[in-house]
Every structure is written in C-alpha cells, then in structure tokens.
Amino acid sequence: MKKHLLAAVGLCCITLLAACNDNEAADDQTAVAVVNGTEITESEFVNTLKQRYGEATLEEMIRRDILLKAGENIELTDEEIQAELDKFRTNLGVQDDEELLNVLRSQFNIEADSLDTFTEEYIIPPLILQQLASADVEVTEEAKQAYYEENSEQFSEQVEASHILVEDEATAQEVLDKLEAGEDFAALAEEYSIDGSAANGGELGYFGKGRMVAPFEEAAFSLEVGEISEPVESDYGFHIIKVTGQKASYEDFAADIEQILIQEQSKSTEEVMNELLEQSDIDIRDQQFSDLFTSDASESAAE
C-alpha cells in the first residue's frame, strides 16, 4: 500500500502540467500571486512545478494510461475492489468512507473528491497489474494437493476469531449482556475494545496454535463457529471471543494454497510494467522529458 500512496506525490499538479505545453508556459504572464509588489506569473509557477514534479508526474500518467489500456478486458469484481479498500481502512485506522477520504487528503495530499475517484486512481490500476502478472498462471488440483502434503506443518488447525478486550470483568459482563440481548459484536468491539482491533470490529483473522496467549488460545480453539465465549482473563485484560471460522483439512486450505502457488508462479509487477512500456509507442514531445524512459531516468524516477 505504501507504494500506491507514494506514487501520488506530485499528482496534485497533474491538471496544471497536463494542461500546458512549453509555449503556453512561456507566454502566460497572468499573475497567480503578488508578493510585496512582485508578481509570480502563471508561466513561472507552471515551470517550477514541471521542474520539481514534472518527470515523476508525467511518468506516472504514462504508466497509468498504458496499464488501463492493457487491462481493458480485465473484469474486477466488487469483492476484489472492496477488499483493497478495506486494507486501506485497516492500515490507516479508519472506519467509514468519509474518514478515509479525509485522511488521504490531509496526510497524503490525495485530492480525491469521492471514493469512486480514489478507487479509479489508486485501487483499480494496481489490481489490473496484479491480474496481468498472473494471467498465464495455471494451478492444477494435483499441484495444490502436492503442496499441501509437502508443507503440512503450515496447515495445522486454525481458527478465525474476533474479540472485545476490556480492562475489568464488570465491563466484560456488561458487554456480554448486550451481546446476549442481540447487539452487534463488531459495533460493541468498536465501542468498548481497548486494543487496535477495535477499528476493525475486533477482527483478528486466522491464527494457529502458539500465536496467542494461553487462556485466549484455549478458549478460542474450544469454541464452535459462531459461538461467543464467557469473559476470558489474560495479562491484557478480559476478552470476549467470537469464533467466525475454522480450518483443519485440505479442503479448508485449498483456496489459500492456490493463491500461494499463483504468487510463486506470477511475474513480478515490475516485470509486467516494463514489458508494457517496451510494447508501447511513447512519443515524448517536451524536450525537458525526452530521456524519461531511458534506463537512468526511469531508475531515478522510480526511486
């Protein structure tokens, strides 16, 4: 995710840079500001932007255009897009869409006016690149089963759980009473839980034995899917645990194994992007950026 956000550096300048060429920049003497009687003209402003951010911004625009063209026949599901958005929310510690947009604007200078705009600019292109990287990969059932047998230690019993962590038993009982009255577990986790999982409704994902403190592990592995524990005390406080999934057999892990094998056999996204660039007809007409896709310039822009 960090790479996606860093790619946005200077993109606030795109409209200005894309709208002007050398002649327009040289001729436009409209003042954008007057400082102590001295004008800063449109041409000075745009030329400074081009010098500071132009190479990285132009390369980003070209790469994105090539990538979207290459991905015209790729269909992304709503689930895939939502999963990526959820990763942003989790990593940034936000819950709703408006809060996500506010953080992106304030911390990363991403001027997306809506979640749809952000999705089009920062979610869809990386997903297309991932799809292109794995386009030629085929994973057979035999390969999955062989991987499972060869790496059986990786696929011991696992549970998926959420929890609500509070400081004292009285609060734990208060939460448990609300759960028994039908209130939503995730909403109560956001309200009561004192650890970082609160922002995600208490979700902890899948984990195997040996990953959690002993009282928590013992309780989690004794529950059935959908079952909620009594308050469980550990060194961190009192947990109320809800098990939401279990994995114990090859069938449970088959989808995970397929993704592992796809990743192992896929091209790197860098390799795919370089292939797309080599196959593209790129005519750089601004002499300032004429060497943009020479090896030295591309390496410099990538850094």
From TrEMBL:
Its main location: membrane. InterPro entries: Foldase_PrsA (IPR023059), PPIase_dom_sf (IPR046357), PPIase_PpiC (IPR000297), PPIase_PpiC_CS (IPR023058), PrsA_foldase (IPR050245), Trigger_fact/SurA_dom_sf (IPR027304). It is found in: Cell membrane. Gene3D superfamilies: 3.10.50.40. GO terms for molecular function: peptidyl-prolyl cis-trans isomerase activity. Keywords: Cell membrane, Isomerase, Lipoprotein, Membrane, Palmitate, Rotamase, Signal. Residues 156-245 form the PpiC domain. The keyword Isomerase applies. It is an enzyme of class 5 (isomerase). GO terms for biological process: protein folding. Its EC number is 5.2.1.8. It catalyses: [protein]-peptidylproline (omega=180) = [protein]-peptidylproline (omega=0). Residues 1-18 form the signal peptide. GO terms for cellular component: plasma membrane. It is a lipid-anchor. The keyword Cell membrane applies. Plays a major role in protein secretion by helping the post-translocational extracellular folding of several secreted proteins. Belongs to the PrsA family. This is Foldase protein PrsA. The gene is prsA.
